[in-house]
Each structure stands twice: as structure tokens, then as C-alpha cells.
Q: What sequence folds into this?
């Protein structure tokens, strides 16, 4: 495998690059899985709260856009709008990873994506908690 000019010099001169290359494909699969889990959650929320979401065209992008929106009377935003660029990065990677043949992952880009994936994985539980809390405040009080 030729050495990339994108790899930091310290990586090229150490055994770290060899190690990164060895784990790049498994790491790519995990990033793919992180986005798949996220997208499945988005789909379930859209279906549960909006009742009508067609899977055609630019469906994946529209799904990300929609879940960042607060829809008064329907549902709150699931994640903060400022997270959209990070989610889009993972979505783009997932598309590339799924459809590319003989893909060679650049180590520096993989490191960036892992950082994004870790950030989203750590933020996801709090997004869920905030979403549920916001939905509960919108529910009418029971007369029990």
C-alpha cells in the first residue's frame, strides 16, 4: 500500500501506520454500523411521530434534516441542528463504504471519522433523554 501524503510524518515513521492500516476495514465497518443505528432510530421516530415518510430520492438527507427540526404540535427536534454536519459526515462515509469497491481508507480521515462517531455515540443517549423529556411535557396530563 503506498504511503499517503495525508498521513502525519510521525505516523509514517512509526509502526503506528501499519497498525492503523490493519484495523482500517474493521473500523470502517464499525463506523458504518454507528450510522446505521442512528438512521434506524431516525426512521422509527419519523414513522412514529409523522406517520408519513417516503423512502425515495434523497431520503437519507431529508431524514437528517427532518430530525433536526422542531415540529410544533408533532414532536421536538431529536438532535441539535449544530450536530447535522457531523451526522452528514457519517452518512457520507456510510454511503462511500457501502458502495465503493476496493476502498482504501486514509488513516487521517479515518481518525477524523472515529472522533465524529465517538462524539455522536456519546451524545446519543442524552439526545434520547432530552427528546423523551420534551415529548412528555407536550402530553396532556392524565385525569387519573
A:
Amino acid at each position: 500500500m503506498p504511503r499517503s501524503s495525508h498521513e502525519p510524518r510521525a505516523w509514517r515513521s512509526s509502526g503506528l501506520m501499519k497498525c492503523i492500516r490493519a484495523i482500517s476495514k474493521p473500523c470502517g465497518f464499525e463506523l458504518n454500523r454507528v450510522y446505521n443505528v442512528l438512521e434506524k432510530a431516525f426512521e422509527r421516530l419519523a414513522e412514529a411521530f409523522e406517520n408519513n415518510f417516503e423512502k425515495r430520492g434523497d431520503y437519507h438527507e431529508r431524514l437528517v434534516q427532518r430530525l433536526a427540526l422542531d415540529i410544533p404540535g408533532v414532536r421536538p427536534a431529536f438532535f441539535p441542528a449544530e450536530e447535522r454536519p457531523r451526522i452528514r459526515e457519517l452518512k457520507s462515509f456510510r454511503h462511500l463504504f457501502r458502495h465503493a469497491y476496493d476502498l482504501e481508507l486514509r488513516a487521517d480521515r479515518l481518525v477524523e471519522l472515529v472522533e465524529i462517531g465517538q462524539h455522536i455515540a456519546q451524545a446519543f443517549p442524552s439526545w434520547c433523554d432530552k427528546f423523551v423529556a420534551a415529548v412528555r411535557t407536550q402530553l396532556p396530563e392524565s385525569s387519573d
Q: What stands out?
A: The helical segments are 9-12, 16-50, 59-67, 84-99, 107-138. The radius of gyration is 19 Å. Residues 24-137 form one domain. The chain has a mean pLDDT of 81.
